[in-house]
Structures are given as structure tokens and as C-alpha cells.
Q: What sequence folds into this?
């Protein structure tokens, strides 16, 4: 069959199909309307889901940012109260609870990972701000919990949604935990991994890990969580009145 003849047949078939289209549409009007409604609903649902997901992620990010931004002020407040002889380090546990809640309810993996990392930092910070002697049991328990937070951020959320910068922060935090537990070799291994890892090159945690390695080599002593010194009590000297001047005759 010649190509011209085939083209002519196809053209005739198309003309016949177009000619019958109005009749076919009238006969299948309900089906056409049903299909169109389904398509519109699917498209609308997809658009709404994406909008909601983006909106929720932005709201979670804003909530986390607002919470984290309060930390420097609270630390300054705790330090100021310590100068007055008051121990308010317990306030940091409230932040830990709030950050833990953000991590559990977050729909965004990066937000959840950051919340866990910040929560671990809060637990470590509380030990340094606490008045009085810190028992080895408290150190082991609280630093152990901080390690769990860092590890969960890495193995759960950052494994599912890789983020090299956040992963470097978490691993550096794990290194600090090992130092505080008296395990310098484990800490050094973590710092080396962050400092030399190609995935972390150029990140702030990589620079921090390199600096920490320098400090560890210069000061090999273990980190010791000593009790926060209480402010000295100023004793006012007694007021001594001068003797009355002799009366001149």
C-alpha cells in the first residue's frame, strides 16, 4: 500500500470519528461529566495536599526558630540569677520538653532533627549551669539521654532526608558528649570524621571539630563538670561612730 493511500485512509477515519464525536458525546455525557469531576477532584486534592504540607512545614520551622531564639536570653537570665544566689537551671528542662514535643510532632525531617539536636544541647547545658556538685550518676544519665537525641537525629530523620550540615552538628555534639563522659578517644574519632569528611567540607561544624581537635591536643585533661561557684557574700564592716569632740570651755 502506497504511503499516500495510507495517509488518505487515516484522514478519512479521523474525519469520520470527528463527525461522530457529537453523537458519541451526547450518548456518553454522564460518563464524560463523571470522569471530568474525578480528574478535577484529584488535581484539587493534590494541590491542597502540597499546599498544606508546605504551610505546615513553614509553621513548624517558625515555631522551632522562635523557641531556639529564646535560649540565649534564658541562659543570660539563669546566669544573672546565679550571681544573686538563685539556681534556675531547671528552666532549661522546660525547653527540653518543648523541643522534644516539636521533634515528635514535626512533619518535616529537618525540623525534627534540629529539634532533637537542640534538645540534646539543652540537656548538656543544664549540667554546666547547675548549682552544687553534679553526681556522676546525673552526668551519665543526662549525657546518655543527649547522646540518644543526637543518634536518633542521625539514624532516623537525617538518614531519611540527608542533610550534611545537620549531621555534622549532631556528630560534633556526640563528640562533646564523649568528652564529658571521659572518653577522649571516642570523641577524637568523631571529630576526625567531621573534620575530614568530604560531605562536611566547608561547614561550620567541620571547622569547630578541627578546633576541638587542636584544643584536645593542647589540653589533654578530661572535661570536668564542676559545681557552679556560689556568689561571695559581702560582709559590711560595722559602723563605728566617732567619739564626741571635747567641749571647748
A:
Amino acid at each position: 500500500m502506497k504511503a499516500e493511500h495510507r495517509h488518505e485512509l487515516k484522514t478519512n477515519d479521523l474525519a469520520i470519528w470527528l463527525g461522530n464525536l457529537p453523537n458519541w458525546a451526547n450518548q456518553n455525557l454522564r460518563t464524560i461529566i463523571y470522569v471530568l469531576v474525578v480528574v478535577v477532584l484529584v488535581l484539587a486534592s493534590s494541590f491542597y495536599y502540597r499546599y498544606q504540607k508546605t504551610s505546615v512545614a513553614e509553621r513548624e520551622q517558625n515555631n522551632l526558630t522562635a523557641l531556639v531564639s529564646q535560649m540565649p536570653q534564658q541562659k543570660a537570665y539563669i546566669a544573672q540569677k546565679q550571681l544573686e544566689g538563685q539556681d534556675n537551671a531547671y528552666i532549661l528542662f522546660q525547653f527540653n520538653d518543648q523541643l522534644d514535643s516539636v521533634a515528635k510532632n514535626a512533619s518535616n525531617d529537618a525540623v525534627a532533627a534540629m529539634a532533637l539536636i537542640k534538645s540534646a544541647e539543652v540537656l548538656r547545658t543544664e549540667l554546666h549551669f547547675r548549682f552544687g556538685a553534679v553526681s556522676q550518676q546525673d552526668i551519665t544519665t543526662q549525657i546518655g539521654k543527649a547522646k540518644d537525641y543526637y543518634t536518633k537525629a542521625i539514624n532516623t530523620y537525617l538518614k531519611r532526608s540527608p542533610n550534611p550540615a545537620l549531621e555534622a552538628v549532631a556528630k560534633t555534639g556526640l563528640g562533646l558528649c564523649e568528652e564529658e563522659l571521659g572518653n577522649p578517644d571516642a570523641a577524637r574519632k568523631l571529630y576526625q570524621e567531621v573534620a575530614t569528611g568530604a560531605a562536611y567540607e566547608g561547614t561550620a561544624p567541620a571547622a569547630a571539630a578541627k578546633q576541638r581537635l587542636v584544643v584536645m591536643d593542647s589540653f589533654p585533661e578530661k572535661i570536668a563538670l564542676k559545681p557552679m561557684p556560689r556568689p561571695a557574700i559581702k560582709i559590711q564592716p560595722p559602723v563605728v561612730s566617732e567619739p564626741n569632740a571635747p567641749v571647748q570651755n
Remarks:
- The mean pLDDT is 79.
- The two ends are 153 Å apart (CA to CA).
- Residues 1-69 form one domain.
- The chain has two domains: 1-69, 70-218.
